[in-house]
Amino acid sequence: MIEIVLAGAPVGKGRPRFVKATGRAFTPERTVRFEDRLSLAAQAAMNGQPLMEGPLKVLVEARMPIPVSKPKKWQAAALAGQIRPVVKPDADNFAKMLDACNLVVWTDDSQVVDLRVLKFYSTAPELRVRVEHINEDEGIFG
Predict the structure, then answer these.
(1) Residue 138 binned pLDDT confidence (cut-offs 50, 70, 90)
(2) 83 in helix, strand or coil?
(3) Are 95 and 39 in contact (CB under 8 A)?
(4) Hey, what domains does the chain have and what are their CATH numbers?
(5) 133, 52 in Cβ contact below 8 A?
(6) What is the SS3 assignment for 11-77?
(7) Using only C-alpha atoms, what is the Rg of the chain?
(8) pTM for the structure as a whole
């Protein structure tokens, strides 16, 4: 099992943008920078280990910053997990950021056969990714 931790407010994968004049598509700079940082954090977590092989299970935790504009009572409830972030970015856009782990943690993210993405509020915003091999005896319901 490896755990990748990337400090700072999590960023979801942005949609490709198109330049009408040239007809070319490009990835938003914010997405590119975050993917680069995630790839570096993954390299550090791997610490020279070989690429993970076979089917993998991944847990992504997006720990979002608590809005300072909210009342203290709301902030306390968010910190206690009673209020969860139902704001952008969408959970699936955090999962799409796993492309940054291709050829760093695994050969291709198609190896991920069990994926869970959670969003929480936190005083220490970060993206946390835990990758494990699938236990051969594990059934579809655990």
Answers:
(1) low
(2) coil
(3) no
(4) 2-133 (3.30.1330.70)
(5) yes
(6) CCCCCCEEECCCCEEECCHHHHHHHHHHHHHHHHHHCCCCCECCCEEEEEEEEEECCCCCCHHHHHH
(7) 17
(8) 0.88
